[in-house]
């Protein structure tokens, strides 16, 4: 069957809004934005999900994508997608910050590795935390919940040509403080134990000044940090899961 240009443009108008919102979310959200997730696969996934989602959405407010109203709708859709993906990126940022705090305390701050999620160098402890968080995120079907959140966001923020509410942007900015709060809470057990270890070394130095604390304390601090991380792992995993589940809930609550 031959298709006219008007029919093709009408179909593109129907699919444009969900495709743009999904593409923007995948551009910044964890897992989807990883370097190992190829751009072709990302675009194909966005097209397939948009094709499934478009028939159940209301009619878009524009009939011509190549117009001023079409541009405004595209900017709004990209902004909403960025906001949803950024909320999950904050949760992974808290995990990275927790790893940095632990690594600097136990003496592994100099051991750096490239994070596949962000593409920047982070301590190896943060790298381990990111891998653990990624596996846990996939285990609780967080990637599927993120796609569902994008679909349900149309009930709260439908496609329109108006801007994103200021309160929603303020809510996204307010979540930035949770990077430090959640990171410190995740790292607090290990930081407390390592503080006691460092205090013990300080007492030993005062009791035996001839002891070379730099030669003895450095490897023992690293060993003690690894033992503490192993012992605190069940609570650490529970904390990561709580942070991830809370972030998945906030992907929609930031829009009211």
Brief overview, please?
The chain is 74% helix and 2% strand.
Helix content: over 70%
Main sheet specs: 2 strands, antiparallel
Amino-to-carboxy terminus distance: 45 Å
Shape: elongated
Helices and strands, in N-to-C order? HHHEEHHHHHH
In the residues, how many domains can be counted? 1
Helix count from the secondary structure assignment: 9
What would your notes on this structure say?
A hairpin with a 6-residue loop joins strand 1 (112-114) and strand 2. This protein has 256 residues and is mostly helical. Helices cover 74% and strands 2% of the residues. It has nine helices and two strands; from the N terminus they run αααββαααααα. The chain is elongated and about 90 Å long. The mean pLDDT is 80. The chain has a two-stranded antiparallel ribbon with strand order 1-2. The chain has helices spanning 5-28, 39-53, 68-106, 124-139, 142-156, 166-174, 177-207, 213-231, 233-253; strands at residues 112-114, 121-123. The chain has one domain (5-253). The chain starts with a helix and ends with a helix.
């Amino acid at each position: 069957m031959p298709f006219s240009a008007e029919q093709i443009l009408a179909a593109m108008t129907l699919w444009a809004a969900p495709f743009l919102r999904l593409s923007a979310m995948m551009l910044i959200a964890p897992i989807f934005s990883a370097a190992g997730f190829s751009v072709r696969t990302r675009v194909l996934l966005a097209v397939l999900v948009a094709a499934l989602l478009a028939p159940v959405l209301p009619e878009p407010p524009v009939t011509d994508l190549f117009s001023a109203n079409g541009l405004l709708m595209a900017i709004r859709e990209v902004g909403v997608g960025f906001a949803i993906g950024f909320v999950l990126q904050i949760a992974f940022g808290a995990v990275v910050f927790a790893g940095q705090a632990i690594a600097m305390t136990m003496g592994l701050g100099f051991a750096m590795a490239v994070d596949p999620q962000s593409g920047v160098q982070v301590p190896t402890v943060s790298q381990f935390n990111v891998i653990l968080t990624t596996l846990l995120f996939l285990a609780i079907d967080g990637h599927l919940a993120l796609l569902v959140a994008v679909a349900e966001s149309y009930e709260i923020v439908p496609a329109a040509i108006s801007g994103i509410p200021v309160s929603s942007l303020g809510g996204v900015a307010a979540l930035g403080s949770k990077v430090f709060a959640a990171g410190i809470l995740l790292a607090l057990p290990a930081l407390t134990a390592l503080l006691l270890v460092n205090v013990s070394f300080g007492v030993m130095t005062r009791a035996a000044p001839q002891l070379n604390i730099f030669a003895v304390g450095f490897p023992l601090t690293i060993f003690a940090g690894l033992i503490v991380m192993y012992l605190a792992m069940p609570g650490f995993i529970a904390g990561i899961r709580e942070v991830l589940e809370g972030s998945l809930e906030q992907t929609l609550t930031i829009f009211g």
